[in-house]
Design goal:
Oligomer: homodimer
Strand order of the largest sheet of chain A: 1-2-4-3
Strand content of chain A: 15-25%
Order of helices and strands of chain A: HHEHEHHEHEHE
CATH class of chain A: Alpha Beta
Structural class of chain A: alpha+beta
CATH superfamily of chain A: NADH Oxidase
Distance between the termini of chain A: 25 Å
Shape of chain A: globular
CATH architecture of chain A: 3-Layer(aba) Sandwich
């Protein structure tokens, strides 16, 4: 597999979807499988992915990503599927490490698993957008998420209806260094 | 690109390295490039990757992942390269969202970027291991990391010297659900 870089470049945050084109369940399953295979601190796997594709429920969850103090994310209503990524209680060793090192390992873990999900989606020709801004209590109520679990991210999933845009990223010498913080990785 | 699932299955946490086989700099560069392309909340890109391949400095950083109250991670000395992933201050919109939603977006972001790095490494035939347990003050001092930045993860990078093992993961019906938290995704 030599073209992961191409896939990483292809994956983008899609904010317009073909509302009439459903997502094949086997594609969603492969996205879940990619997430399932991802690594986590102490192998805690502190995640649960709730796929929401029942139309009225999906619209209800989608609406919870809009409004509030900022009018944003209206494209979530277009996406035929939303996926709520839930943070689950981690295991003892992960919790011990997180407490001693003051580092929220489950957030790092869920970032990794979410990346796997979205990369597999891109490999399937599907678009995703990762949303951290939503009505957490509303999502919890809509999906029956219990108290010790926390809905952390909402992903949109569907076929893109927008055009590709060039990515805006810092150049490599601004985000990489060699042998010291202040020695930029040589560009070019 | 249809074999991302294969890549996700190939990537594993490598805990034994060929200490005599260096990592080609162009491979490291492509890992950095994959990380650079990854998404982040409000496109903050709150990360810096410090590649440590100067042997004495690398040994010094590697030693900071062992010892303390737990005797672990001795394989880090074998790896010809370690990469310190540094959390950088995020931008205003990301910080605002994180504060309002009580959610540490930069940790999610760094999880995603680290996944990209490790997946590209796997595509190059390289092994990685993601370590969250290390002497943060020691790493900060060794690499001159300033106060507003935080070394969050240490990655080992090198050619594997161990055998593949089957992954231990929860089955899909334990980590995925459909339209309600308590409705397991159908297995099989």
């Amino acid at each position: 597999m030599h073209d992961f870089l191409t896939l990483a470049a292809t994956r983008r945050s899609v904010r317009a979807y073909d509302a009439d084109r459903p997502v094949e369940p086997e594609k969603t399953r492969r996205c879940l499988e990619a997430a399932r295979l991802s690594p986590s601190a102490c192998n805690a796997q502190p995640w649960r992915f709730i796929v929401v594709d029942e139309p009225a429920l999906k619209d209800r969850v989608a609406a919870l990503t809009s409004g509030g103090i900022l009018p944003m994310n209206h494209f979530t209503r277009q996406a035929p599927v939303v996926v709520v990524v839930v943070q689950e209680p981690a295991n003892l060793t992960s919790n011990f490490g997180a407490a001693v090192k003051r580092k929220a390992f489950p957030l790092l873990d869920i970032g990794i698993a979410t990346a796997h999900f979205c990369l597999q989606a891109a490999a399937e020709g599907l678009g995703t957008c990762i949303l951290g801004w939503f009505d957490e209590r509303g999502v919890r109520a809509a999906l029956g998420i219990p108290g010790r679990s926390r809905p952390l991210l909402v992903l949109t999933l569907g076929y893109p209806a927008d055009a590709e845009r060039p990515k805006k990223r810092k150049p490599i010498e601004k985000i990489a260094a060699r042998n010291a913080y202040a020695s930029p990785w040589p560009s070019g």
